[in-house]
Specification:
223 residues; 42% strand; alpha+beta; outer membrane lipoprotein receptor (LolB), chain A; 13-stranded mixed β-sheet; 3 helices
Amino acid sequence: MRILLPILLCLISAPALLWAQDPALAPDNLKFSREAFDKNHLIAQVNVATQPGAFLHYRYDRYAEVRRIMNDDGSEYAQLKGKSWRKSKDWGKNGTIVKGDKAAELDNRADVAEVALAEPETHDASQGGFVWKFIEKGEEGDIETYTYEQSREHPRPNGIYPRYTFVKYKNDTDGKLLLYRFTGQLRTGDNVTPIRIQYGLMILLPKGTIIETVTPPPKRKKS
């Protein structure tokens, strides 16, 4: 049985709100998110800009021994750990093996989906080390969000730096925030590509019950 739970956040006191906004805690929140996603079923709704106002969208799933990519055209690809990608509707158990450029493309899409969870890389040492800045607290329906920017010690005046949006769940007492959204840019040589990723996870409980703790937005209809 699958139970979809809306994200409900508790009312937090003023000191707690200030604590959640501390940028020094962003790395801990990201570490907590990595661990939570590693232990459960990661879901990522990925949007990669192909041109101004147009995006390539796909859904990426990763859990246990398999990862999967679902495209808007209905095609599905899955890869069991240590195996080749397959065009498959049953999580890689059956289907046509994919090789060459297509397999490389799928590997790249999987890497893009998890880019927010990877350690940052510097391409310009003159900007110094990485620093975190608190940007804003927001509300989206029944959730409260906390957004941080991963900037640099000497940021470029016109630089665009990645932003991480976290959420906190109702009745949480550990003060940890879970990654909910990432916006940033992919760099290939001198070219940069804007991306936006919404994250979620499903937790498998005893007796097969699945709780989806963060529900990604529904697939958008094509205009």
